[in-house]
Design a protein that fits this description.
Length: 567
């Protein structure tokens, strides 16, 4: 057994003290993951590890040497009981890291708990000790936990992989419990907020029940939602039987929350729905090469359009199916997805399968050129799922049926590869789907939404009601007009202007967003003055706009709509 003792006495300095006790193999290697499952970027968690020391059973200091960026080696241990101690700097207020201060103690073991190479299958016990002044904190986690003494908790995991995929939080918490399809759930919120807990419970129970019912069963026997309420942070990370969320407090339901949830609250419910759906899709149903993660290096897959894209399709659809939002709200959310797709010029540069593979270097490393050069496997993947769902329904099946088949296959030890979706579509319909799916995921051709929607009673009309002046996304700053993005097919980019330039004048007048928009509508050539870094530059630019295409969705046949949206 591996025994971790975690203490927070130096929480004011954002430090976690870890003591690890184990029977060491000869020349034992200790390692920390470089990334966390579900977030595809090398995070270099080991940079936060400080003051690593090792001792034998008699308390004598042992030699321990760091030989790779995330690995340490013990020498001449000869199966002795060994203690390793170290500190972890924890000041990452995100769902991926660790964070400790006087208000919250949050630990992702992936970035705190060193593992033992060749002892990954050993059972794990974690003892958590709270300082006297924080002993009133409650704990939230997906791990088995107990507390026999106030301020001290014992957590258990079957192995290291389970440990590092199960964060825990200690804080003052608002919490409630409920059962969904007979499975106990806990919902926990920390941070300053005024959440309407009764309304939240009512809605989240419907969402969870709907998702379990869709699959027919769940790959967990209990589930925990952990939410940190902040001013404006947003995100979530899935785990096998829990999720960690961070949300603007204004997205939580208000005391007077209307029957139809506000757009802010819809966003939070969509986040909950999304991360919960991941319990099936990516935590249980996985790409074949993710069946055993190598957390020392990047792990590539071209299938994130399934695992994130399908999840993004269902997250809002589940809100509708559960009765939490209306059809009108759902169509508005769907329109938002389509608008984002249509306004992304990078969709003509990168396919959604390429986007999946490049997640490590592109999606998680967004820059000023991201919109020009790439597409989102969340956004386009969602619309690919929509196309597949509608296409399957035209042939007597549905994406729901495909998801259930994926779940059944995984229960039989069969994971997802490049052929899986093609093969399942053929099994479900009797038709060959290779060409259609290849078109959806491996080309940059437009998605056939305009062909599919009318089959389900929905008109699909493109509009150009807004435009980017000179092809620029701009914001007014005290120093001038800041260029956030420059479309490479726009007049400004062709003239030489770039993202991060600051426009100070056009045609001899002080520049503002409003003035630039006015000039962009005119024909002719204008002189633009700007700063690039600290250098003053002059440009000659043609008046021109780039239309921002949007879609208008109108119901023309509700009965046909029901064939899609009513399950």
């Amino acid at each position: 057994m591996l025994h971790y003792q975690i203490e927070f006495d130096d929480y004011r300095q954002h430090l976690i003290h870890v003591t690890l006790r184990f029977v060491a193999n000869p020349t034992q290697v200790l390692s920390l993951p470089t990334w966390i499952p579900g977030s595809y970027l090398i995070r270099e968690f080991s940079k936060h590890i400080e003051s690593v020391k090792a001792y034998d059973e008699a308390g004598r200091q042992l030699k321990i040497t760091k030989f790779e960026k995330n690995k340490w080696r013990l020498y001449n241990t000869d199966h002795e009981l060994t203690t390793v101690e170290y500190d972890v700097y924890a000041y990452d207020l995100s769902v991926r890291g660790a964070y400790v201060d006087q208000t919250r103690l949050y630990v992702n073991p992936a970035c705190v708990c060193l593992g033992l190479v060749e002892q990954e299958q050993a059972p794990v016990e974690v003892e958590v000790f709270l300082p006297q002044e924080l002993k009133h904190f409650q704990i939230a986690t997906g791990l088995a936990s107990k507390s026999l003494v106030k301020g001290r908790y014992t957590l258990k995991a079957d192995n290291y992989a389970q440990l590092i995929d199960a964060p825990f939080e200690l804080a003052d918490q608002t919490r409630f419990s409920f059962d969904a399809n007979g499975i106990p759930h806990e919902f926990v919120v920390s941070g300053q907020h005024a959440m309407n807990a009764e309304r939240m419970k009512q809605d989240i129970e419907k969402i969870c029940s709907t998702e379990i019912s869709m699959f027919g069963a769940a790959p967990f026997d209990h589930y925990t939602f952990m939410t940190m309420a902040t001013a404006n942070s947003y995100g979530g990370l899935e785990h096998p039987n829990s999720t960690s969320l961070i949300s603007p407090r204004d997205d939580l339901p208000k005391a007077d929350e209307p029957t139809e949830p506000s757009e802010d609250y819809q966003r939070f419910l969509g986040l909950c729905s999304h991360e919960y759906f991941h319990s099936w899709l990516v935590k249980f149903i996985r790409p074949e090469n993710f069946d055993n993660y190598d957390l020392n290096q990047e792990g590539y897959t071209s299938l994130l359009w399934i695992f994130e894209g399908f999840t993004s399709y269902y997250d809002d659809l589940i809100l509708l199916r559960s009765g939490v939002i209306s059809q009108a709200s759902y169509l508005k959310l769907l329109k938002g997805q389509i608008d984002r797709y249509l306004q992304n010029p990078g969709r003509f540069i990168q396919s959604v399968s390429e986007s999946s593979f490049d997640a490590w270097i592109k999606f998680y490393r967004q820059d000023e050129n991201a919109n020009n050069a790439g597409t989102s496997y969340y956004n386009k993947g969602c619309l690919v799922a929509l196309c597949l769902d509608l296409g399957l329904r035209l042939r007597g099946s549905s994406l729901d049926a495909l998801m259930r088949r994926l779940y059944e296959n995984t229960q039989q030890g069969i994971q997802v590869n490049e052929r899986t979706i093609v093969d399942l579509c053929k099994e479900l319909t009797g038709h060959d789907w290779l060409e259609q799916i290849n078109h959806l995921i491996n080309t940059t051709d437009e998605l056939p939404l305009d062909q599919l929607f009318p089959e389900f009673g929905l008109s699909y009309t493109l509009k150009n009601e807004k435009a980017l002046p000179f092809g620029l996304k701009l914001s007014d700053k005290p120093e001038g007009v800041f260029i956030q993005q420059a479309r490479r097919d726009g007049a400004a980019a062709k003239a030489g202007l770039s993202a991060n330039d600051v426009i100070i004048a056009i045609d001899g007048l002080k520049a503002t967003e409003k003035l630039l928009a006015k000039y962009a509508k005119q024909s002719g050539t204008f002189t633009v003055y700007a700063f690039r870094r600290d250098e003053f530059i002059q440009f000659e630019i043609q008046g021109a706009e780039i239309d921002l295409t949007t879609v208008e969705l109108n119901i023309v046949d509700q009965a046909k709509m029901d064939g899609w949206l009513k399950v």
